[in-house]
Amino acid sequence: MEFDLSEELVAVRNLARDFAEKEIAPNTAKDDQEHFFRRELVTKMGELGFFGCVVPEEYGGTNLGWMALALISEEIARIHSAIRVHINMQMGPTLALLQFGTEAQKKRWIPPLTKGEILGCFAITEPNAGSDVAAMATTAKKNKLGYTLQGTKTWISNAPVADIALVYAYTDRSQKHRGMSAFIVDLNSDGVGRRTLEKLGVHASPTGELTFDQVSVPTDQLIGQEGEGFKICMWQLNQTRLNCAAGALGVARAAREAAVSYANQREQFGQKIGRFQMIQDQIAQIVVEEEAARLLVYRAAWLADQKKSNNLEVSMGKFAAAEAAAHAADSAFQILGAYGYSTEFPVERYLRDAKSYQIVEGSSNIQKLIIGQDALGYRKANR
Ligand code: GRA
User: Rounded to whole angstroms, how far apart are CA atoms 378 and 372?
Assistant: First the structure.
């Protein structure tokens, strides 16, 4: 068993840390307050190869692996969690194309997504289909030239700005989840509507609704076979979840660092508040939860790099990291008191952003369902 990062991974981590501290940090507070999406950050991350870690060189990637991607996401989310979301919006369509796309589809979309030249997103969630993916109502009806897409997707990260979307829709409702299909949809097509949605946190990553009113999708934009959509969706979610979990680690770390730093400065009752056992209790809890989550997430990434199935390990890592982030942010908030509540300090943002990790990419309850049913032998997570 090896716990040290290779020299290559240390270099990747340092590159991401440097980028986050120099290029993201100066604008973080302003972008959060103004709900501002900084397109040039996507371009720079593309240039640095951040979207190409699990992409072969022939499509413009670096092939450094899942561990590299996890380290990058953690470093970026430590500075600003919303910017971490940009990574997954490029990765969602890229990963589905890599695994299920034709050679022509890979060549068409993966290089520009990897370079950050076009913006991606993935559209699963609908007003009446969140955790229950199969309850979606969007349909893609076959016509002479391809498909006609009809329906509404909501809470889609990047919906207001993306160029293309990986969209899941029913081609045959009677087949239930076996009648779902996956498409790459050009979001500048006729009949596509977009509406921005406001939310508690993750402000610098725009979120919105996508409406498809009789949108034409050419046949060569179907990913995989008709009816493979649910399988593609579950596969894709397992990959993006891992990276999302790495983002949660970054938020947990940022909150823990803020709590420790403040506890070492603030004096009350004649001593640093870190000297009080109740503060030590809170710090100890968040340190251990963060570190336990990190080991779980890194193991899931390591398994992915070994090309071993890791659905169960990803769910464990995502659950642990989301909960660690939310608890660390809540504890930091409490330790900083009024300075935690203040919008002049970042801890209130950590708390707002941390809460998102308990919801997105499969809620904490969905992860527990996957883990619990696997443990009980009802449904194996790794298959
Ligand atoms: O046997 P079969 O052929 O009928 O197939 C079944 C099963 O074997 C079928 O799907 C198969 N399947 C899988 N195949 C491969 C199920 N899971 C997998 C898998 N992991 N890999 C139906 O199975 P089922 O168990 O009856 O399905 P279900 O109960 O409808 O769904 C299971 C589950 C609840 C886990 C699933 O629906 C799920 O993961 N729900 C959560 C949805 C989710 O994560 N949404 C995220 C939205 S995107 C987002 O949040 C973006 C945020 C951006 C960011 O910040 O990163």
Answer: 9
- Whether pTM exceeds 0.85: yes
Ligand 1 lining (C-beta closer than 6 Å)? 85, 88, 124-125, 131, 133-134, 157, 177, 230-231, 234-235, 237-238, 240, 244, 311, 360-362, 366, 370
What is the rounded distance in angstroms from the CA atom of residue 70 to the CA atom of residue 304?
A: 11
Residue 276: φ, ψ to 5°: -80, 140
Q: Which two tokens stand for residue 325?
A: 């982030």
User: 3-class SS at 144?
Assistant: coil
The 10s digit of each residue's pLDDT in 109-120 is: 999 999 999 999
Query: Hey, what are 107's tokens?
Result: 């060549």
Helix extents (H) in 219-363: 229-263, 277-305, 311-336, 338-341, 347-357
Instruction: Give the separation between CA 11 and CA 270, rounded to whole angstroms.
Output: 43
β pairing state of 122-123 and 164-170: parallel
pLDDT of residue 241 exceeding 90, the answer is: yes
Which structure tokens are listed for 78? 């430590």
Nearest CA to ligand 1 atom 54: 85
Catalytic residue among 23, 74, 290, 361: 361
Answer yes or no: 361 catalytic: yes
